[in-house]
């Protein structure tokens, strides 16, 4: 797929836009002023592969905590601010790598100029984040509601405020909580600007609804070449957001991180307790980062075909699994040893293929 040409910005040491890898980000849900809790959550996010983290900055205590948090984490930190430009300035002074703030909502040109001067001095980007639920009243009236056109007009209004101040390190998101509006809004926005875009479906919901909406909305846009970084929003542990984000990139063959497990849905021919085997293997391999294709199939009807195409594969028989490696049958493995053997084969494969 051809990616839309965008400008590049730097969020700390992570590039966004202009062909840089599409990054996966998330947001903490601890009180930011609670440094220990926030750092602990960011460490879990880092371990899951999260590449950029956003923290809420609702008050000066949260802004002041940023320095202490930054000192203990390795990924760039984005400060999320609503309305109060003093919080944006304080967050930047305490070491935030980027700001998320909508300049049209902070009280006029003088305050915008102050935030811009502060961001420019520190070479920080600003993300404009438009959500369908908080559009300006006049735009809602003109467009008859929070339509994609209204969302784009709002975003471009914020962009102009920054550009008029000579500020160009901009990233934009334009999220609704439903897929059709979000996709339409991003498509429209992509025609009007070449600033990099942060993709997401806002308030997507709990695990099942959130995964489906995010995969469809973010996936459709990515497949069209739109999008430079993404955040999956789930009413769930934020580590799950990162996992889903990478699964979306993996499914579209855009980026690979960790194993891709191909497994069959099982049917009456299934010769082993496949669901349990897949669960155990998936859980054990969660922290792995080396891309590898595994096939775990229930029987010898379709199993060997898939298993042969994978780096390592198992096709279940009656109480045994046939182990394949790089297309070759290696041996039969008793059911009670299947998971251990598969994991040992992955270890070996990683050694031979450059494990981190
Ligand atoms: Fe059924 Fe075998 Fe296909 Fe799995 S691989 S769904 S067990 S036919």
Description:
With 356 residues, the protein is an alpha/beta fold. It folds into two domains: 9-251, Dihydropteroate synthase-like (TIM Barrel); 259-352, Sulfite Reductase Hemoprotein, domain 1 (2-Layer Sandwich). 42% of the residues lie in helices and 19% in strands. It contains twelve helices and 15 strands. It has helices at residues 35-47, 60-70, 85-93, 109-122, 137-143, 148-164, 179-192, 207-223, 238-251, 274-285, 303-309, 338-352, and strands at 9-11, 14-16, 23-27, 52-56, 77-80, 98-100, 126-131, 170-175, 198-199, 229-231, 259-263, 292-297, 312-316, 320-325, 328-334. An eight-stranded parallel β-sheet has the order 8-7-6-5-4-3-10-9. Strands 11-12-13-14-15 form a five-stranded mixed β-sheet, sandwiched between helices. The protein has a two-stranded antiparallel sheet with strand order 1-2. A hairpin with a 2-residue loop joins strand 1 (9-11) and strand 2. The radius of gyration is 23 Å and the shape is elongated. The mean pLDDT is 93. Residues 264-267, 269-270, 297-299, 301-303 line the site of iron/sulfur cluster. Converts 2C-methyl-D-erythritol 2,4-cyclodiphosphate (ME-2,4cPP) into 1-hydroxy-2-methyl-2-(E)-butenyl 4-diphosphate. Its EC number is 1.17.7.3. Belongs to the IspG family.
